[in-house]
Each structure stands twice: as structure tokens, then as C-alpha cells.
Design brief:
Layout (H helix, E strand, L loop, with lengths): L10 H22 L2 H4 L11 H14 L4 H11 L9 H10 L1 H15 L34 E3 L4 E3 L1
Antiparallel strand pairs: 1-2
């Protein structure tokens, strides 16, 4: 019940967003997914196409839902009232099966719509590469690694 009041947008705004995502995902799906997978057996028996399942999955992540059960309940009660939608276990099974395709489509959409700026995100948390007792004798990554001070842990990291 954590996400009961999580979504503050109206259902019409969410449906418009879903339709835009479905259009983009369908374009990417045609390019990314091989013809043999798109034209596999028994696709006419599915309640929703793969592109719609992928779009719903992406929308759930965009809206910040972390519970799969609550997201499926929200989708089936608000977005697909008059259309058939797979039951919860079938939906999550399809999402797991489509995970590699979702990653390909996501990377394609990021390449298409990301801004080519001069700024990037750099993780500033130091990563220990060797045991503290061996940090001065370590030979791997000596050219690029540095011994730094972590103020949060009050120690040097190597």
C-alpha cells in the first residue's frame, strides 16, 4: 500500500503519455527486434502486443512505481478498462522475457533523444581497488587510480 497515492497525475495525462511511448516503442521495436521473433507462433493469441507491454513497463519506471503488483493493479484498473490486459503473473513473465529487448530499445531511445552536451555525470564515490594494507604496492590501474581520502568514512581509499 506504499504507492497507493504515489501517482498524482490524472489518468488522461497518463494515457496520453502511454500513447506517445507506445508510438516510440513501436518504431524502435520494428528496428531492434528481428523478424523471426516478431513473427513467432501464436502472437495472435496475446491479449496485448509486445510493444504495448514494453511501453507499459517503461511507463511504470518513469512514474516511479517500485512494486510490480501495485503497478499492474494501477494499469489494469485505470489504463486498460475496456481492453484486455494480461493477468499479473503473465504480464511479469512477459516483461522478464522481453527484458533484453527492453534494454536494446532503451539504449536506442537514449541515443536518439539524449542531448549532446558538454556535461556528463561522474560518480564521485571512491572505489577501493585493493586491500588497504597493499594499496601502495598495487600494480593494477596504477596509471589511472589514485589514493584518495573519503571524508564520510574518515580514511584513505586506494
Amino acid at each position: 500500500m506504499q504507492e497507493l497515492f504515489h501517482c498524482t497525475q490524472s489518468c488522461s495525462q497518463i494515457q496520453q503519455l502511454l500513447s506517445r511511448i507506445v508510438k516510440e516503442v513501436e518504431k524502435a521495436y520494428e528496428v531492434v527486434v528481428p523478424y523471426a521473433i516478431r513473427q513467432r507462433r501464436n502472437t495472435h493469441l496475446q491479449k496485448q502486443r509486445d510493444a504495448v507491454i514494453i511501453a507499459v513497463h517503461i511507463l511504470g519506471h518513469m512514474l516511479g512505481f517500485t512494486s510490480e503488483r501495485m503497478w499492474h493493479q494501477f494499469v489494469s484498473q485505470n489504463l486498460f478498462l475496456d481492453q484486455p490486459f494480461p493477468e499479473r503473473s503473465r504480464y511479469h513473465r512477459r516483461c522478464r522475457q522481453l527484458l533484453s529487448i527492453i534494454k536494446w530499445i532503451r539504449s536506442r531511445l537514449i541515443r536518439l533523444y539524449s542531448r549532446k552536451g558538454s556535461y556528463g555525470i561522474i560518480e564521485s564515490l571512491p572505489i577501493p581497488l585493493s586491500h588497504p594494507a597493499r594499496k601502495y604496492r598495487a600494480k593494477r590501474m596504477r596509471e589511472i587510480a589514485d589514493i584518495g581520502y573519503c571524508a564520510a568514512k574518515k580514511n584513505t581509499m586506494g
